[in-house]
Design a protein that fits this description.
This protein has 427 residues and is mainly α. It has one domain. Helices cover 84% and strands 0% of the residues. It is built from 18 helices and no strands. The longest helix is centred in the middle third of the chain and has 38 residues.
């Protein structure tokens, strides 16, 4: 069995990604019982708002540069020097977007601080932490396309372990509260960005001091159309904390964030499988063999059935598990965790169809779908929170994620047709 697993790049890669992502998810879970007992819901709400700010800044600072660098790898007649210059051009863009965003945050740091409920210094450092995370994602992405899952997992888990260790030191030992948790995230992101740069340079994948306007334009052509897409993702997955903080207060934002952590654990499993699946899928889409396409469709339908059936577990054991892990103070998170998990299941289904759009390189319609779904989520949030409180936020999230999946499926079929409705088996 193990020899078969090693021989199958998809299964072997998926196993490594799954293990590393499980470890990655287990580390915040290991931290959760500690943080919820050392931080009040209001303090946990401050941490949640800092993390929400990181998510918001990703759209404007990141420009999906890691995705552009990963997609470049599949271009024909690509030399090693071409790729290192392209990655260098991506980092030049990242430097520019970081400076522009930092300047805007500096000008309005007081307003952002009042709105988010966190100190202005954390607002400014969030821009640096976001840029650092993008650098690490570029390094991880280059390992992913080369199917080097073990290296990917090692860096990913090591970063989380550093985050864990610093958080425990600052929150538990030095009793720094929410500030300690925020500092840990900033230091971990910055430290691993430096490591990622060194690894890119060591592996001959980075040439920063180069002027390639053609590569800058190419990266921007990939990333700029995705700004609405990434902005829509923010509206889908992060804006709820802003609305909850505004409508219900920091304490409720902290309670909701505990439930979100459980949902993110589910999402990490789907992300792990997708990271191994993408190189395997792109190779088969490139070969364009009809029988392989039918096999992919059958596999996808089977996966949909499995994860939809499994989503019910979140409603059954989620409330009990939250009380066990986070304590009675955060027990209200159990009222929403099932719906949040269901939303992440729809996200897992979305991942299986969105890859066809990225393969086609025509991402404009995907951006429209995501931004529409994001604004729908925002509309539902404002409507349902007034009537159902925290539960309303979870209802909105689940509904918006379901609609995004179905709309994306339609766009994927338009961009790269697959035999989704050809059920006759052919060997």
């Amino acid at each position: 069995m193990f020899s078969k697993l090693k021989g199958n790049t998809f299964l072997a890669g998926s196993a490594v990604y799954l293990i590393s992502n499980i470890l990655n998810a287990a580390i915040p879970f290991a931290l959760l019982p500690v943080l919820t007992r050392y931080l009040s819901p209001e303090e946990y709400g401050q941490v949640a708002m800092f993390q929400a700010l990181l998510g918001a800044l990703t759209a404007f600072i990141g420009l999906s540069l890691h995705g552009a660098a990963g997609r470049k790898f599949y271009d024909g007649n690509l030399t090693e020097n071409d790729l290192k210059e392209f990655i260098g051009s991506c980092l030049q863009i990242l430097l520019a977007t970081t400076l522009i965003t930092y300047s805007a945050l500096f000008l309005f740091s007081g307003e952002f601080s009042d709105w988010l409920g966190i100190e202005s210094k954390w607002v400014l450092l969030a821009a640096m932490a976001t840029a650092a995370t993008i650098v690490a994602q570029i390094r991880l992405g280059q390992w992913q396309v080369r199917k080097k899952a073990k290296l990917y997992g090692t860096l990913q888990v090591s970063r989380s372990l550093l985050n864990l260790g610093l958080s425990l030191l600052l929150v538990v030992v030095f009793l720094k509260g929410a500030d300690g948790r925020i500092v840990a995230q900033i230091v971990a992101a910055g430290g691993f960005a430096l490591l990622a740069l060194w690894l890119l340079k060591r592996d001959g994948l980075l040439k920063f001091f180069v002027w390639r306007p053609d590569y800058i334009r190419e990266a921007l052509r990939f990333g700029v159309p995705l700004i609405p897409h990434v902005g829509g993702l923010f509206l889908l997955t992060t804006v709820d904390r802003f609305v909850i903080n505004s409508e219900l207060g920091l304490a409720d934002a902290g309670i909701y964030m505990v439930a979100v952590q459980f949902g993110m654990a589910v999402s990490l499993v789907f992300d792990a499988i997708n990271k191994a699946y993408v190189p395997w899928l792109f190779e088969r889409l490139k070969s364009d063999i009809e029988t392989e396409k039918r096999q992919i469709v059958r596999f996808t339908y089977g996966w949909f059935a499995v994860i939809l059936s499994g989503s019910g577990i979140g409603f059954i054991i989620g409330p009990w598990l939250i009380t066990l892990v986070a304590g009675e103070t955060y027990a209200r998170a159990g009222d929403v965790v099932g719906w949040i998990i269901l939303g992440h299941v729809f996200n897992g289904m979305y991942l299986m169809v969105t890859n066809y759009i990225f393969f086609s390189k025509r991402t404009g319609l995907l951006s429209l779908v995501t931004i529409f779904s994001g604004f729908l989520n925002l509309f539902l949030l404002l409507l349902l929170i007034k009537n159902f409180g925290l539960q309303g936020a979870a209802y909105a999230f689940s509904a918006a994620m379901a609609i995004r999946f179905f709309l994306t499926w339609g766009v994927a079929q338009k961009r790269h047709a697959m035999p989704w409705f050809t059920f006759k088996y052919q060997s």
